[in-house]
């Protein structure tokens, strides 16, 4: 897969990236509604295809299997679809092939949230994120910091601290509209 892309800018998929729980799924749904586009959540799509939850896939088939399925699905979506709003799982963008496909074929929007604000969200998300289970807060912070380097490879960044989902979605939508009228 080369980096050449013949998809016109206006038709490229919008790909939301960022750490677990920053709001990719929540915001992606809202942006899709606002722009009248289809929404695809990669985690939900994998769950649907396997008829299993993400924690069950991790437990029964292992993380390596999940990462392969995730990578193949994202590359397929990036290269073969247009005009979608796609929310990735939090760890997908750590894979280089995924980054390349998203950056060359889509418009990548990084949803950023500070550690201080993210910490507050942990209790509401820990139960269905296998990578957060059985980890201390310090270990999670380390993962949060480690992943920053990968997420720094994006087209746009939206700082989400203190913003409700509607406001974040409006900001994402404005970025896309401004880009389309450039
Ligand atoms: N801007 C926001 N303000 C407050 N709460 C939010 C915001 N965005 C999302 N949330 C809440 O945070 C939790 C995680 O959101 P969501 O599932 O959308 O994250 P995600 O980035 O898709 O996570 P994952 O990487 O695990 O798929 C949900 O309970 C959601 O309601
Ligand atoms: O950040 C991660 O590695 C993950 C995030 C979730 O979206 C799921 O894809 C899964 O729980 C792994
Ligand atoms: Mg999600």
UniProtKB/TrEMBL annotation:
Signal peptide: none annotated. GO terms for biological process: amino acid biosynthetic process; aromatic amino acid family biosynthetic process; chorismate biosynthetic process. It is found in: Cytoplasm. GO terms for cellular component: cytosol. It holds the Pfam family SKI. InterPro entries: P-loop_NTPase, Shikimate/glucono_kinase, Shikimate_kinase/TSH1. GO terms for molecular function: ATP binding; magnesium ion binding; shikimate kinase activity. Binds 1 Mg(2+) ion per subunit. Substrate binds at residues 43, 67, 90, 147. Mg(2+) binds at residue 25. Its cofactor is Mg(2+). Belongs to the shikimate kinase family. Catalyzes the specific phosphorylation of the 3-hydroxyl group of shikimic acid using ATP as a cosubstrate. This is Shikimate kinase. It comes from Parageobacillus galactosidasius. The gene is aroK.
């Amino acid at each position: 897969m080369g980096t050449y892309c013949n998809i016109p800018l206006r038709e490229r998929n919008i790909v939301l990236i960022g750490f677990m729980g920053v709001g990719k799924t929540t915001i992606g749904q809202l942006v899709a509604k606002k722009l009248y586009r289809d929404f695809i959540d990669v985690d939900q799509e994998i769950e649907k295809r396997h008829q299993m939850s993400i924690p069950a896939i991790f437990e029964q088939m292992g993380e390596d299997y999940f990462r392969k399925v995730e990578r193949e699905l994202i590359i397929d979506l990036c290269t073969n679809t247009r005009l979608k709003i796609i929310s990735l799982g939090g760890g997908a963008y750590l894979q280089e092939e995924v980054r390349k496909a998203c950056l060359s074929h889509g418009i990548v929007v990084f949803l950023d949230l500070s550690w201080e604000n993210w910490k507050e969200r942990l209790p509401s998300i820990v139960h269905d994120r296998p990578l957060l289970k059985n980890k201390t807060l310090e270990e999670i912070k380390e993962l949060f910091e480690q992943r920053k380097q990968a997420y720094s490879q994006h087209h746009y960044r939206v700082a989400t601290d203190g913003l409700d989902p509607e406001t974040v979605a409006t900001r994402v939508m404005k970025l896309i509209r401004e880009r389309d009228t450039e």
